[in-house]
Specification:
This protein is of the alpha+beta class. The chain is 34% helix and 16% strand.
Length: 417
């Protein structure tokens, strides 16, 4: 009897130690405990600018010649009208837990503000703002003639996708989040401590980071739900497949492409990082996870505002910029997406858009571009109510744009939008 009790105790102790080691995984870059802690209210500000301490990652280095934004920065105090109520910008920034706000007009910084311990050197995570960087590389591959048409099927360029749901989808379907695969994505309840509770976005990250499964293989196995190109549904998996696409046709690792085609040509002020999957190969997670400074996020918006030309050199065709930012199918128009915003090639457009478009990431990361006004706005935050606050954020971006585009207007005049 005593021997049985002793053996049972040893067995239970072994199981306990195994579970503890699995949970904390001190030998690995990633651990389940770290992923859970990422979104805790008292920790997420710190974690969002220190993602490299929790997950596997790779450097994206900038050029020796770094671009410095021309400065004419000053205070920005304004009111705006939202649903019949006059509100103040400072209150908005505090309520949405904004960590950084950068306003650029005609290439000059007019306002720059950091909160909650952030600074111009903080490398904040982008979440889905990264999707617009991926789309840009697709445009560059088309400009290079490596992709003939967005109407081509995905498996025409990625043989591994033959006989899969993604393989049968057109590149355009995937760009428009209309792939038709069964990938399900949810962003939880307001004020929840997890950004994507009970969604496939969470599941696939657990599978790759904990069990080492290649993300490409996981996503390629998703089945068909509906005909591609018929209905918009937010699927982060679509963007990762686009990252796989550009890696295949450009024949270089994804992070190398980001470095060579964007980071160095745009003269990014700081080196960035991109989180990797948990496979032995270490592939960047294409649907999120670029970590960079606010000033450098803004440079992608400025490249688009300038029509694809940077320092006299064309990096991206103007035709792609227009194609990527103007919805061209009924199912991606604002009325059929979220009402207040529509979609095109991994860029959002606000309702009643007029050469305005946005890169949006969960928890309130944004790059806003208003081509006609010459304004680019970049913002980072840790807002748990980001989805509910998107409509108001668009109103605020338009109010800021109006304020910096209307000199000598009284500061206390509310922007009626």
């Amino acid at each position: 009897m005593k021997k049985w009790v002793k053996r049972t105790g040893v067995t239970l102790l072994g199981i306990f130690i195994t579970l503890v080691l699995f949970w904390y995984q001190p030998w690995a870059t990633f651990s389940p405990s770290g992923m859970i802690r990422t979104f805790q209210p008292d920790e997420r500000v710190h974690h969002f600018r220190n993602m490299e301490k929790l997950y596997p990652w790779v450097w994206i280095r900038g050029a020796e010649d770094r671009h410095a934004w021309p400065q004419n920065a000053g205070p920005l105090e304004l009111s705006y009208n939202f649903k019949g109520e006059e509100r103040k910008l400072d209150d908005f920034l505090a309520r949405l837990q904004v960590t950084g706000l950068l306003v650029i007009k005609d290439g000059t910084v007019l306002h720059e503000r950091y909160l909650q311990g952030e600074s111009k050197d903080s490398r904040h995570t982008s979440w889905s703002v990264a999707k617009s960087f991926v789309s840009t590389l697709v445009g560059m591959a088309i400009d290079d003639g490596l992709i003939k048409s967005v109407d081509d099927r995905m498996d025409h360029y990625i043989p591994a996708l033959k006989n899969t749901a993604y393989g049968a989808a057109r590149i355009k379907d995937v760009l428009q989040m209309s792939s038709g695969v069964t990938f399900y994505e949810s962003y939880g309840a307001p004020n929840s401590n997890t950004s994507f509770a009970m969604s496939d976005a969470q599941t696939v990250l657990y599978r790759t980071w904990i069990f080492g499964e290649p993300l490409n293989d996981i996503l390629a196995a998703y089945d068909k739900k509906e005909e591609p190109g018929t209905r918009w549904e937010y699927r982060s998996s679509d963007t990762h497949m686009l990252a796989w696409l550009v890696t295949t046709v450009m024949k270089k690792p994804f992070h190398t492409l980001v470095e060579e085609r964007l980071w160095k040509p745009l003269g990014m002020e700081a080196d960035a990082t991109w989180l990797l999957d948990g496979s032995d190969e270490g592939i960047p997670v294409g649907f999120c996870c670029l970590n960079a400074t606010l000033r450098d996020f803004a440079r992608l918006g400025e490249l688009y505002r300038l029509g694809g030309v940077w320092n006299g050199k064309r990096l991206l065709s103007q035709s792609w910029i227009k194609e990527a930012t103007i919805p061209d199918a009924d199912h991606v128009m604002p009325k059929n997406v979220y009402g207040t915003r529509g979609y095109q090639y991994q860029w959002w457009v606000p309702k009643d858009y007029d050469r305005e478009y946005i890169a949006i990431g969960i928890w309130g990361q944004y790059i806003w571009v208003d081509e006609k006004a010459g304004v680019v706005i970049a913002r980072t935050s840790v807002d748990p109510n980001f989805k509910l606050n998107t409509e108001e954020s668009i109103v605020v971006f338009r109010a800021i744009t109006k304020a910096v585009s209307t000199p000598n207007e009284p500061e206390d005049k509310a922007a009626e939008l």
